[in-house]
Specification:
This protein is an all-alpha fold and 62 residues long. It is globular. The termini are far apart.
């Protein structure tokens, strides 16, 4: 699974509610999860959720 800008702005918009530096967090999430790591490995929804939660928390505290 990969994630797109449109998904961040619609499906996952609740992740960013009442957070600071959301644009920087979105950029980092897209940089990491917009492509699969390689042909064999794929991001799971849980991978994306857990890592995105950490990225958003980091940027919210920045």
């Amino acid at each position: 699974m990969t994630i797109t800008r449109q998904m961040l702005d619609t499906t996952y918009v609740c992740w960013f509610r009442n957070k600071r530096n959301t644009e920087k967090a979105k950029q980092e999430i897209l940089k990491r999860f917009s492509e699969e790591p390689d042909d064999i490995h794929h991001w799971t929804e849980q991978d994306i959720y857990e890592q995105s939660r950490k990225i958003i928390a980091c940027w919210d505290n920045a």
